[in-house]
Design brief:
It is a single chain. Helix content is 0%, strand content 71%. It contains no helices and nine strands. The strands form two sheets. A seven-stranded antiparallel sheet has the order 1-2-3-4-5-6-9, with no helix packed on it. Strand 2 and strand 3 (40-60) form a beta hairpin.
Length: 170
């Protein structure tokens, strides 16, 4: 699950919309993979995600709807741990590690005006983060583990459009 907020600015010329947006989300996204072999499983949990993105879109339905593409820089904090695959238990005294990754994000979305100044949005984002190599002392005390997280997110939200010198019509 994600819970967060976003802020941005849009410029509209005819049906075309150009914008910039930043967001930060508390995340509870968990996953796992075998590492470095079938004896151990590496667990990971994305704790928060943030991005600064550009948006380029086109309105339709008399400016009530906006279809857009988005992309930019992303940050994410991910916690890693390792456990024995057969038992699901962590070895006694095993440390865990946390890393804030930098990477990129790209996606598609749609926004629809539900009331004056209010829009509902639905978007898909793919986050691709930088890799990091954990030394043996960081995770299991035995092996070096290289991680390169990728996260796919589908999210919905509500936006309030403030007025200003240039106001998007959708």
């Amino acid at each position: 699950w994600l819970l967060g907020g976003h802020a941005g600015y849009n410029w509209q010329s005819g049906q075309f919309v150009l914008g910039v947006e930043g967001d930060i989300d508390w995340a509870n996204i968990k996953g796992s993979t075998l590492c470095p072999n079938a004896t151990f499983t590496c667990g990971h949990e994305a704790r928060w995600l943030a991005s600064l993105r550009g948006r380029l879109g086109m309105t339709f339905m008399n400016n009530a709807a906006l279809l857009y593409a988005t992309g930019g820089v992303a940050w994410g904090n991910i916690r890693y741990d390792e456990f024995v695959t057969a038992t699901g238990l962590s070895p006694a005294g095993q440390p865990n590690a946390s890393k804030t990754h930098v990477g990129w994000v790209a996606g598609l979305g749609m926004e629809y005006m539900i009331a004056p100044a209010w829009t509902a949005r639905f978007e898909y984002l793919h986050y691709g983060f930088s890799s990091h190599t954990f030394a043996p002392a960081d995770l299991d005390g035995v092996t070096t583990v290289n991680v390169r997280p990728n996260i796919d997110v589908v999210r919905a939200g509500i936006s309030y459009k403030f007025g200003g010198p240039v106001v998007a019509k959708y």
